[in-house]
Amino acid sequence: MISYRPDVPSGIAMSFNSAVVEIAFDYYMCACSMRHHKANIAAVLCTLSIEIAFKSFLVQPVEHIGQANELYDGFNGHKLDVLYGELPEKISPFLINLKDMALLKQYSQFFIKGRYAYEACSDSGVNHTSHYELMKLAGSIILNIVYLYQMNGCDDKFIKDFDIDSFYEKNVVESRHTSIM
Predict the structure, then answer these.
(1) Other CB atoms within 10 A of residue 174 CB
(2) Tens of pLDDT along 113-161?
(3) Rounded to an integer, what distance in angstroms lies between the CA atom of residue 6 and that of residue 10?
(4) Contact present, 137 and 143 (Cβ < 8 Å)
């Protein structure tokens, strides 16, 4: 099995919004289950997953704090590049490398413009290669957030039980060699 152990940035003061991360993971897994000709739908789910993952650093718990049904309030908006720009300075480069920034910018507004594929003004022109790269990017972001939470002592069950190495091997490394049909 491949091991995933990146260097974690030091000196990060962070709150653990693990319920938000788990929701981002759920949308990502829905996208992964759509391995067929509807690449547009999977791409929308991936961009939504990335959006929610970024927002996990930008929201604050407001109700049911510390409980499984914790609710949050915070940053509104769907543009991925804007959300990325709002992330804490030490965290943003840990989540996305420079190579992936072009893809993030290319699909920054895809959740807004691509989710209604039946509309004439929809941006439904995602191709299988881009869809595939977007899935890998969403998986990498979630992987890095969960790893960061684990390394900073988050005691949430979803975070603690998350198998970093297996997820990395199946969703980040392996996905580079799998084509979407």
Answers:
(1) 12
(2) 666 565 555 566 555 557 788 889 999 999 999 999 999 999 999 999 9
(3) 12
(4) no
